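Run log // design_07
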């Protein structure tokens, strides 16, 4: 009886060992594929504005939708919409921290895009006032 019990334990441990090894191999392969996909995505010709920000975690298009702006270079409109949405979603006004953080992250993403790709002065002169010389 003890002999059969020992054989069952041994067979069970072999099965578990093989299953664990197979799962480990699959996880390793999936990890390599994910790393390869990330490397290909960073080397692709897609612009930074189409990719998700590593800081804010949202894309530029999503940020524009959250703040309801079409032109991110119109900083007056972006700031006005941000201030309005941030105040409305304040907890004291019946808003939620979740929505307020979404608004904040959207503004953060747009600011990040503006730093990475500053506006061209000739094409966006209608949105920014030019500094005057003293």
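design_07 sequence
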């Amino acid at each position: 009886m003890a002999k059969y019990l020992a054989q069952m334990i041994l067979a069970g441990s072999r099965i578990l060992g093989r299953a664990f090894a197979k799962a480990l191999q699959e996880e390793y392969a999936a990890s390599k594929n994910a790393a390869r996909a990330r490397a290909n995505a960073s080397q692709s010709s897609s612009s930074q504005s189409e990719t998700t920000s590593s800081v804010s975690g949202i894309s530029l298009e999503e940020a524009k939708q959250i703040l309801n702006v079409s032109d991110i270079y119109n900083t007056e409109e972006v700031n006005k919409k941000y201030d309005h949405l941030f105040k409305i979603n304040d907890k004291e006004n019946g808003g939620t921290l979740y929505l307020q953080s979404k608004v904040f992250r959207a503004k953060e993403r747009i600011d990040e895009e503006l730093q990475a790709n500053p506006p061209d002065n000739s094409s966006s002169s209608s949105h920014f006032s030019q500094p005057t010389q003293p």
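The longest helix spans residues 2-43.
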